[in-house]
From TrEMBL:
<dbReference type="GO" id="GO:0016787">
    <property type="term" value="F:hydrolase activity"/>
</dbReference>
<dbReference type="InterPro" id="IPR019826">
    <property type="entry name" value="Carboxylesterase_B_AS"/>
</dbReference>
<dbReference type="InterPro" id="IPR050300">
    <property type="entry name" value="GDXG_lipolytic_enzyme"/>
</dbReference>
<dbReference type="Pfam" id="PF20434">
    <property type="entry name" value="BD-FAE"/>
</dbReference>
<protein>
    <submittedName>
        <fullName>Alpha/beta hydrolase fold-3 domain protein</fullName>
    </submittedName>
</protein>
<dbReference type="InterPro" id="IPR049492">
    <property type="entry name" value="BD-FAE-like_dom"/>
</dbReference>
<keyword id="KW-0378">Hydrolase</keyword>
<dbReference type="InterPro" id="IPR029058">
    <property type="entry name" value="AB_hydrolase_fold"/>
</dbReference>
<feature type="region of interest" description="Disordered">
    <location>
        <begin position="1"/>
        <end position="23"/>
    </location>
</feature>
<feature type="domain" description="BD-FAE-like">
    <location>
        <begin position="83"/>
        <end position="182"/>
    </location>
</feature>
Length: 309
């Protein structure tokens, strides 16, 4: 196993967290000291082979693009607003999956997210992956809006690539699951679409409340205001979610990514929106994502069940 552990702070009888008597610094969030919270949001600490695993996804994606080149369309006015479309032969009214890639809002692109296409297309569905910018050039609110526009374009133009506008689904991993969660809180009626424009979503090891994220070392590149934090925290807008959600996590993920997934899934279950809860065994954060490219994995089975394919 590749888990890492650090000592936890204790709790007083009244429930308040206190640091151990050894002189350890006081907690800044739950039982985490600042160092522990920083590590809990640093995936390279929990998956030392992170770079190799992401490179493997990129290599598999390049091979997929060579064997089954996608159709690439522009969903907006910017040069960034591109979306890749993979479909079965001669598609007509097929279900559609839009996948939002991860990478701490700073890494990867749609071209690194082609690897799940064969598994999804092999089940008779269309697979789409958009670009939406990164924090290196784009602020988080704009990235969220780009993802919303990519979904809106997909729904309005589904027939042009043989998709069914009434069966559009969403998936995302890590920061992509966060962005997908924000997309799920969209008021689609204000954009002239049905309230249930998205029929379901698979969210894998995402962040659904940005408060602890902003307290962590990720604040060095996640520059948002408290108001933007509130707007971009799906956990605080559960009433806006109008479709079933499948939540997945990895058993060797960091403690915060596991906690965020569990809390979000519990809330969805309480409101009748949880479609399924999946744990990827013997998998870290990045191995979980890779399993979306395996048609018989527990992650893919959760997705196919959600989509009814």
């Amino acid at each position: 196993m590749r888990r890492r552990h650090f000592p936890a702070a204790t709790a007083t009888p009244g429930g308040a967290s206190v640091a151990p008597s050894s002189g350890q610094p006081a907690p800044v969030f739950l039982d985490y000291t600042q160092e522990q919270l920083d590590r809990a949001y640093d995936q390279s600490f929990w998956a030392p082979q992170m770079a190799e695993l992401e490179a493997d996804d990129g290599a598999r994606s390049a091979e997929v693009r060579r064997k089954m080149p996608p159709r690439t369309e522009r969903y907006g006015a910017s040069d960034v607003d591109l979306i890749d479309i993979f479909t079965p032969p001669n598609p007509h009214g097929v279900p559609v999956l839009v996948f939002i890639h991860g990478g701490a809002w700073t890494r990867n692109s749609r071209q690194d997210a082609s690897f799940p296409a064969p598994a999804v297309v092999g089940r008779g569905a269309a697979y789409l992956a958009p670009d939406f910018g990164s924090l290196k050039t784009t602020r988080l609110p704009e990235m969220i809006e780009n993802c919303r526009r990519a979904l809106e374009w997909t729904i309005r133009n589904a027939a042009s690539f043989g998709g069914d506008a009434g069966r559009v689904f969403l998936a995302g991993h890590s920061s992509g699951a966060h962005l997908a969660g924000c997309v799920l809180t969209t008021d689609w009626t204000a954009r002239g679409l049905p309230a249930d424009a998205i029929k379901g979503a698979l969210l894998m090891s995402g962040m659904y409340d940005l408060y602890p994220v902003r307290l962590s070392s990720r604040s060095k590149f996640l520059h948002i205001t408290p108001q933007e934090e509130e707007a971009a925290s799906p956990m605080r807008h559960l009433n806006r979610i109008a479709c079933p959600i499948a939540v997945a996590s990895a058993d060797e993920d960091s403690p915060e990514f596991k906690r965020q997934s569990a809390v979000f899934a519990d809330a969805l279950q309480g409101m009748g929106r949880l479609a399924s809860r999946t744990l990827a065994f013997n998998a870290n954060h990045f191995e979980e994502n890779g399993r979306l490219g395996q048609p018989d994995s527990e992650i893919s089975r959760a997705l196919f069940s959600l989509m009814g394919i």
